[in-house]
Design goal:
8 helices; alpha/beta
């Protein structure tokens, strides 16, 4: 039986394990998807050694960047982003080869593109500076938007939350939350933004999908913002992961 899995820490609720095992059952695929909750990325070789049937892995926080050092090759897109969330595992004799890809950018761009109006949506704020935010930045730029990262801390090339004025929100009217702020169970918190400056030209996209409507989304929607959570992105990512695992690339 082929095996696929997810590495990260902590994992808790995983969309991938339920999605893929259901898909395998529905399509009669002789495979199993497993969660590998490893407290250090240094344990990846142990996982591979214990499970020689592994054909592919997904990678989640906090290992999307750290895992690159363990790979034999990385797709040009993932290299440009600086983060990997899909690994294709190939076995040839006694040699195991790992190739990294990024499906975050595919899932995100396919999900947000229908919401964009080129007349109005030219600049975006990306909340957070982690591995996912790099893919979001790459995706938004590929769709023609200018981007600025938002951080709680003073970092090169970022703006801090306290400096986001109503005027900034009017100009950067696409806002993507790449932080865990508002995720279950801490659902009554949201990024500190001037929501009252938002209107029907504002797009709020939250990578969080539990709860299905975060406080970030609810507060923006009160002022007419177009809002969307990360569930469709996850589904599109899963499709892309399977294509990477099964493809010849």
């Amino acid at each position: 039986m082929d095996k696929y899995g997810l590495i990260g820490y902590p994992l808790g609720h995983s969309f991938s394990i339920s999605y893929f095992n259901q898909r395998f059952a529905d399509e009669g695929i002789n495979a199993k998807y497993i969660n590998f909750e490893i407290p250090s990325i240094d344990e990846l070789p142990v996982v591979l050694a214990k499970h020689p049937e592994l054909k592919g892995l997904n990678v989640t926080i906090p290992y999307k960047e750290k895992v690159i050092d363990f790979l034999d090759s990385v797709s040009p897109e993932a290299r440009a982003i600086g983060a990997v969330n899909v690994i294709k595992v190939t076995h040839e004799g006694n040699k195991t080869t790992l190739k990294g890809y990024n499906s975050d950018v595919i899932g995100f761009t396919q999900s947000i593109e229908p919401m964009l109006d080129k007349k109005w949506h030219k600049k975006a704020l990306i909340l957070g500076t982690g591995g996912a935010s790099k893919a979001i930045n790459y995706g938004l730029k590929s769709l023609g938007l200018e981007t600025v990262f938002v951080s709680r801390y003073e970092r090169p090339g970022t703006i801090q939350y306290e400096k986001i004025t109503p005027e900034v929100v009017k100009e950067y009217n696409v806002i993507v939350n790449c932080t865990p702020v508002g995720m279950f169970p801490k659902t009554e918190v949201c990024p500190n933004l001037p929501y009252e400056a938002m209107d029907h030209h504002t797009i709020l996209y939250d990578l969080i999908y539990n709860p299905d409507q975060t406080l970030f989304m609810r507060r923006g929607a009160e002022y007419g913002a177009d809002v969307k959570n990360g569930l469709e992105m996850l589904l599109l990512q899963a499709f892309a992961s399977w294509e990477f695992w099964q493809g010849e690339r």
